[in-house]
């Protein structure tokens, strides 16, 4: 028994060492909450199974409970494989095609449960959602997509526009007079440099309209944590790289972005410049808020 306990402790310590060394804190937060979600689902399964075996239950009730338990077991098994796939993908930066389905189930099925658990333990919701975005970004980058510029859509929130600007750019971003008082001018510089599509949305409805209009194969999305998480889930299976905005004046008012992060996300999706016909690459003018 002592040897077995010693071995179990060593295994646990080895797993913890791998997680600490290879998974940054933010990513560990979301993945840890997913693991706790599965444990809670296991406890729920135990309760359902106990009720199903209760002799006071009618045969019909027992059948229903057994069927419910079977569905829960199936979801837990798939989610467990999905979480394992997420961890391995992040550690080795390699896409595991066979586990795409389980990873999608783990993210979509247990994400709401992870948020509830976070509230119970008084974990800031934005931190959980930020962790989700970082995990998603790593999964997207592991796929090593290489696309033409016209296949990439940059989606930005309207709150990047200066609040005193009189020009409406949510319908047509070229209405921007490019005065340089807000980051919109820099987004247009990125568009002109790389040849990508750009849309500025007031919310999810307009963002979905841009996706339907441009039909991109990949999206670079700028938004707050809440909008990024919902947008990533709504856009599935289109891969989305999320870039969180900065809110020095509060939410949805004169928000800012770090342009190098946006450009890095765009360049990640692009094929080599020599393979883009007629494209002479030049560095964009990112004079605003570097």
Please describe what this structure looks like.
The chain has 290 residues and is of the alpha/beta class. It contains 9 helices and 4 strands, in the order H-H-H-H-H-E-H-E-H-E-H-E-H. The chain has helices spanning 2-22, 25-52, 59-92, 100-120, 125-141, 184-194, 204-214, 225-235, 259-269, and strands at 152-157, 197-201, 218-223, 240-244. A 4-stranded parallel β-sheet has the order 2-1-3-4, with helices on both faces. Strand 3, helix 8 and strand 4 form a beta-alpha-beta unit. The chain is elongated. The model is unreliable at 18-22 and 273-281 (pLDDT under 50).
Quick recap:
Helices cover 57% and strands 8% of the residues. The chain is an alpha/beta fold and 290 residues long.
Oligomer: single chain
Mean pLDDT: 82
Shape: elongated
- Helix and strand composition category: alpha/beta
Order of helices and strands: HHHHHEHEHEHEH
Largest sheet: 4 strands, parallel
In percent terms, what proportion of residues is strand?
5-15%
Strand order of the largest sheet: 2-1-3-4
Please estimate the helix content. 55-70%
- How many helices? 9
N- to C-terminal distance: 60 Å
The tally of strands reads 4
- Unreliable stretches covering 5 or more consecutive residues: 18-22, 273-281
Q: Top keywords for this entry?
A:
4 strands, 57% helix, single chain, 290 residues, 4-stranded parallel β-sheet, alpha/beta
What is the secondary structure topology, with strand pairs?
Blueprint: H1 2-22, H2 25-52, H3 59-92, H4 100-120, H5 125-141, E1 152-157, H6 184-194, E2 197-201, H7 204-214, E3 218-223, H8 225-235, E4 240-244, H9 259-269
Helix pairs in contact: 2-3, 2-4, 2-5, 3-4, 5-8
């Amino acid at each position: 028994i002592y040897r077995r306990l010693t071995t179990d402790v060593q295994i646990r310590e080895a797993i913890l060492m791998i997680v600490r060394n290879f998974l940054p804190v933010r990513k560990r937060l979301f993945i840890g909450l997913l693991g706790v979600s599965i444990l809670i689902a296991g406890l729920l399964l135990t309760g359902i199974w106990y009720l199903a075996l209760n002799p006071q239950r009618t045969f019909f009730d027992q059948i229903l409970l057994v069927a419910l338990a079977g569905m829960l077991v199936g979801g837990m098994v798939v989610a467990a494989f999905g979480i394992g796939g997420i961890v391995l993908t992040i550690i080795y930066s390699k896409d595991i095609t066979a586990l795409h389905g389980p990873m999608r189930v783990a993210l979509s099925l247990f994400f709401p449960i992870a948020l509830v658990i976070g509230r119970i333990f008084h974990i800031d919701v934005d931190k959980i959602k930020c962790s989700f975005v970082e995990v998603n970004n790593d999964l997207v980058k592991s796929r090593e997509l290489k696309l033409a510029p016209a296949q990439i859509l940059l989606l930005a929130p309207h709150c990047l526009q200066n609040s005193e600007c009189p020009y409406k750019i949510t319908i047509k971003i070229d209405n921007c007079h490019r005065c340089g008082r807000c980051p919109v001018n820099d987004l247009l510089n990125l568009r002109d440099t790389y040849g990508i599509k750009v849309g500025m949305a007031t919310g999810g409805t307009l963002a979905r309209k841009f996706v339907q209009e441009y039909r991109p194969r990949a999206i670079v999305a700028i938004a707050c944590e809440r909008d990024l998480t919902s947008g990533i889930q709504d856009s599935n299976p289109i891969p989305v790289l999320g870039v969180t905005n900065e809110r020095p004046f509060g939410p949805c008012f004169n928000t800012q972005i770090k342009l190098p992060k946006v450009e890095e996300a765009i360049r990640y999706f692009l094929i080599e410049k020599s393979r883009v016909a007629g494209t002479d690459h030049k560095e964009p003018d990112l004079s605003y808020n570097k």
